[in-house]
Amino acid sequence: MYSRPSRLPPVVRDPNAPRVKRDPRQLRRLLAYARPYRGLFVLGLLATLVASGLNLFFPLLFGRLIDASFLRVGSTDTGPLDRTVLMLLGIFALSALFGAAQSYLLSRVGAGVVADLRRSLFGHLLTLSPRFFADHKTGDLTSRLTADVGTVQTVTSTALAQLAAQTVSFVGAVILLVTTSPRLSLLTLAVIPLVIGTAFTIGRRIRRVSREVQDRVADANASAEEAISGVRVVQSFTAEEVERGRYGRGVVASFLAALKRARLQALMNGTMSFLTFGSLAALLWYGGRQVMAGNLTPGNLVTFLIYALQVGGTVAALTGIFNQFQEALGASGRIFELLDERSDLPEPARPAPLTRAEGRVTFDHVSFQYGDVPTLRDVSFDVPAGQVVALVGPSGAGKTTLVNLIPRFWDVTSGSLRVDGRDVREYALAELRAQVGLVPQETLLFSGSVEENIRYGRPDATFEEVEAAARAANAHTFISAFPQGYTTVVGERGVKLSGGQRQRVAIARALLKDPRILILDEATSALDNESESLVQAALETLMQGRTTFVIAHRLSTIRGADRILVLNAGEVVEDGTHAQLIAAGGLYRDLYELQFRKEQEERAELV
Question: For every residue of 384-437, which 3-state class applies, written as one string?
């Protein structure tokens, strides 16, 4: 049994985070996703209206059935009774038929709208820059993609049809109420404004709390996402209890918010129930007096009561639909907040063609800062096509930031970065990135097969081309040793492969893509000596004929580079070959000698 904690940690909100607007016009944007299904929606709406219209005949026929039974006591003529029952059965059958059609058609519309919305939202997320993902938790984004989109499904399908159906039922029932007994109608209709006012008052509070529930669920999902993706770190630090507590606090926060919403919904339901049945009791009292006075037949009273119940039921249903719209407003606000995000890497209006780059890269007085933190300062150098450039320097010098500017993961703050003589901002992003290959330290493989991961950069490649790339990357031997060969599933993030195997698959992937510019970001730093030698040999093959930028933690592996740039505090402080920099006696020689002594000490310890 759940026990409430004595003290719940406060929910930390970002004071600079923009508040999501709950604009009713967002519902029109949601309905735009229903346009491809408007034919099915119209048919479902018609079926709903027909079923609602048929249901209006039920009270009238039921009243006739009462009068045919009780006002003809002693009569042997059962014809009116039989005809009335047959008409009731026919109406029930038709109502059931149209109700089933409505259920299927509108469910089909809702499922299609949700699928399209999820595809649209996910596709839009993929267009946003790394800066956006650095500022947003993955768990929160996946929560919006799943839970929030699911919340709006009802509105884009059944809720609109039910709104129309309940409106028809309400108007029809009110007209028939007045026709049956004007006096009783006044008593019934007097309660309706009170019901509607209650619904709107409590409904607004439900909307606010519903948004809070969605936010708290997203926070809990974000905690779970981080813990699951980093489960090895969690377990290595025996931090299971820490993560369990962090996720538990998020669940408790969402639970308490859900309880708050449940209390408001219970208040709404209880109030509506009291108003409905209280007015029914008053109708029974007054209507019974009218029957006793001879102003109404028993059948007319029963007919009136059923119509009154229909009016109460439609008001309650409209209240529920109103609540659904309120919840959808909160969810749609979170969805459209993402859809309205625009990348800070704008595409050029008329992109310059870049079918096959030569590979020349020029940094011209480039500076870059993330927020208020400067990372690169006035960096200038020119790399001819096909040259191998090594980037070295202490941690935090700006090496990774510099190479990430080339495929436009970020844009320069000032200066110009050119590829083949044109500023990279003049090229279409897709064409520019098609010319750049990246082999990072932490290789990310997807949870498909080895073949799918190699083919990732060129989905149209033949199997022969995939195998040739794997051979060139020294990966074919270990891939062939697997029982399923190239169809072997690598697991999430390639967890079923060793570090060296993952790197060689990544190199094969880059080889198959055949980029003109290659970025190797400490691609061998996490490997043992045997794996490193195999990966290094594969990298030598990959680097041939390409402009290559190498970031390496072992300076001994870059001595053969055409050129070495030494960065410190975001500036290029030395530039030359290995021999030239050693002879100059600057920062590079200090780093090299420090690492050389460390390697000597490690060898001595092994001996």
Answer: CCCCEEEEECCCCCCHHHHHHCCCCCCCCCEEEEEECCEEHHHECHHHHHHCEE
List the alpha helices (DSSP H) in 7-159.
Answer: 25-32, 38-55, 57-70, 79-125, 130-135, 138-143, 149-151
Average pLDDT of the chain is 78
β-strands 388-392, 547-551 pairing: parallel
Task: Check residues 428 and 113 and name the one with the higher pLDDT.
Answer: 428
How large is the average pLDDT for residues 455-460? 84
pLDDT digits (tens, 9 = 90+) for 465-483: 888 888 888 888 888 888 8
CA 401 to chain centre: 28
Same domain membership, residue 364 and residue 321: no
The span from the CA of 33 to the CA of 28, in Å, is: 9
The answer to whether position 4 is within a domain reads no
Residue 11 binned pLDDT confidence (cut-offs 50, 70, 90): very low
Domain final position from 307, 339, 371: 339
For residue 225, the domain's CATH number is 1.20.1560.10
Q: Does residue 10 belong to any structural domain of this protein?
A: no
Q: Who contacts 90 (Cβ-Cβ below 8 Å, separation ≥6)? A: none
Within-domain flag for 415: yes
What is the tens place of the pLDDT at every residue in 583-598? Answer: 888 888 888 888 766 6
List pLDDT tens digits, range 249-271. Answer: 888 888 888 888 888 878 877 87
Residues 424 and 222: their CA atoms lie apart, in Å, by 34
Query: Do 417 and 406 form a contact (C-beta atoms < 8 A)?
Result: yes
- On the 0-12 / 13-18 / 19+ scale of CB atoms within 10 A, 564 is buried
Number of domains within the chain: 3
Range of the domain at 577: 354-435+515-607
Give me the mean pLDDT over the 399-414 stretch.
Answer: 91
